[in-house]
């Protein structure tokens, strides 16, 4: 078996190539093809330089049996329109090139965010729960678009199997996400009358699951595979582990404030994305479990890894803060819920922008 990985020079792609190159047990790919627009110092792999957004990618896929696409952009700081354009173009190109070159199977990585988060969501959700429709400019909208492309590719190319892997919120040493920034805030936001349930996925578990799916052909119901630590943590569990306190506000205040902050480009977090910080989205990872895969990290260990990685970093509602802002917002958080959400910091920021 020949397994190819896009985005192999960095991030999850690099971790996946390293795992495939040092397999546990006797099961291993015959060849690992690393695809990126630059080389990296990885041994035991075949490098093929290509831009995943360039249709010329088709010429780099000869002999590939499974193509795992990890070359997406999930940065909270990328301009949303640019991020969306890249993620959609890359997924389109990968699927089209794979079909044209005769690759039997493609694995795409999205997120459990496509299930949506709501106050009345069952805990856990079944893996084959319906995907929500989202047209917002947040990452959730990107993932919904990518999964729609996967569905169309299955219909247009019956010989191409497309598996979508949905990890829970990712944590790892170098990951900067909306969720990691949430835990870099002075306090944890909660919505009045609702208690959160938290589920995480360590990036090592994601790479392990991707390798397992590629080698063992795990496809899941309707081509969907969820990956996460087993079970979930309550809000009380999270506060005990992190040593953080929460502040509680009415839902209309929380979502109204985030809407205004996002519209003013003060925070990258869209209103829909805030729901994942205050409402549950916990998934039963049945396909992987039944195939014999197990996560290496529990939710508690994953959260501890997240907390260790945020040392010295400060953020509020998805926006990284400078040292002066930290002092202002920390005081506000202790004093009033509205200030904790960032309203005071937002007003100061807007005044500075108008004055400049």
Characterization of the model:
The chain has 13 helices and 15 strands. The strands form five sheets. The chain has a seven-stranded parallel beta sheet, with helices on both faces. Strands 7-10 form a two-stranded parallel sheet. The radius of gyration is 21 Å and the shape is globular. About 11% of the residues have low confidence.
User: Can you tell me the overall shape?
Assistant: globular
Structural class: alpha/beta
Cα Rg: 21 Å
How much of the sequence lies in strands comes to 15-25%
Mean pLDDT: 86
> Which residues sit in consecutive blocks of at least 5 with pLDDT less than 50?
312-351
User: Which sheet architecture does the biggest sheet show?
Assistant: 7 strands, parallel
Distance between the termini: 59 Å
- Strand order, biggest sheet? 3-2-1-4-5-6-11
Quantity of strands, as a count: 15
| Count of separate DSSP helical elements | 13
Sequence-ordered SSE layout with sheet pairings:
Blueprint: E1 2-6, H1 11-21, E2 31-36, E3 46-49, E4 66-69, H2 80-101, E5 105-109, H3 139-156, E6 161-167, E7 170-171, H4 178-182, E8 188-191, E9 197-198, E10 201-202, H5 203-216, E11 224-227, E12 233-234, H6 235-242, E13 246-249, H7 251-263, H8 271-278, H9 286-291, H10 299-309, E14 315-316, E15 319-320, H11 323-335, H12 337-341, H13 343-355
Parallel strand pairs: 1-2, 1-4, 2-3, 4-5, 5-6, 6-11, 7-10, 8-13
Antiparallel strand pairs: 9-12, 14-15
Helix pairs in contact: 1-5, 2-3
């Amino acid at each position: 078996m020949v397994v190819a990985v896009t985005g192999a020079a960095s991030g999850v792609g690099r971790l996946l190539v390293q795992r495939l190159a040092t397999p546990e047990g006797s099961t291993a790919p015959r060849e690992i093809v690393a695809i990126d627009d630059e080389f990296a110092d990885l041994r035991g792999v075949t490098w093929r330089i290509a831009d995943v957004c360039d249709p010329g990618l088709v010429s780099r896929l000869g002999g590939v049996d499974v193509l795992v696409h990890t070359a997406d952009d999930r940065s909270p700081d990328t301009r949303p329109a640019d991020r969306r354009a890249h993620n959609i173009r890359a997924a389109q190109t990968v699927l089209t090139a794979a079909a044209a070159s005769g690759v039997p199977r493609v694995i795409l990585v999205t997120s459990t965010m496509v299930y949506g988060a709501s106050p009345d969501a069952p805990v856990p959700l079944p893996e084959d729960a319906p995907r929500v429709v989202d047209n917002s400019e947040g990452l959730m909208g990107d993932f919904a678009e990518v999964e729609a492309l996967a569905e169309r590719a299955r219909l247009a190319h019956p010989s191409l199997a497309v598996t979508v892997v949905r990890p829970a919120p990712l944590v790892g040493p170098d990951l900067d996400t909306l969720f990691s920034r949430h835990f870099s805030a002075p306090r944890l936001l909660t919505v009045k009358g609702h208690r959160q349930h938290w589920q995480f996925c360590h990036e090592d578990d994601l790479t392990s699951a991707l390798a397992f799916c590629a080698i063992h052909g795990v496809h899941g119901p309707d081509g969907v595979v969820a990956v996460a630590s087993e079970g979930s943590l309550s809000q009380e569990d999270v506060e005990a582990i992190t040593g953080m306190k929460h502040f509680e506000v009415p839902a209309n205040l929380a979502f109204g404030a985030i809407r205004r902050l996002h519209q003013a480009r003060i925070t990258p977090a869209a209103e829909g994305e805030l729901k994942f910080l205050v409402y549950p989205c916990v998934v039963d990872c049945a396909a992987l479990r039944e195939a014999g895969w197990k996560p290496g990290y529990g939710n508690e260990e994953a959260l501890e890894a997240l907390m260790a990685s945020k040392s010295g970093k400060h953020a509020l509602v998805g926006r990284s803060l400078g040292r002066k802002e930290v002092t202002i917002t920390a005081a506000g958080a202790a004093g009033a819920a509205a200030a904790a959400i960032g309203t005071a910091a937002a007003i100061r920021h807007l005044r500075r922008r108008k004055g400049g």
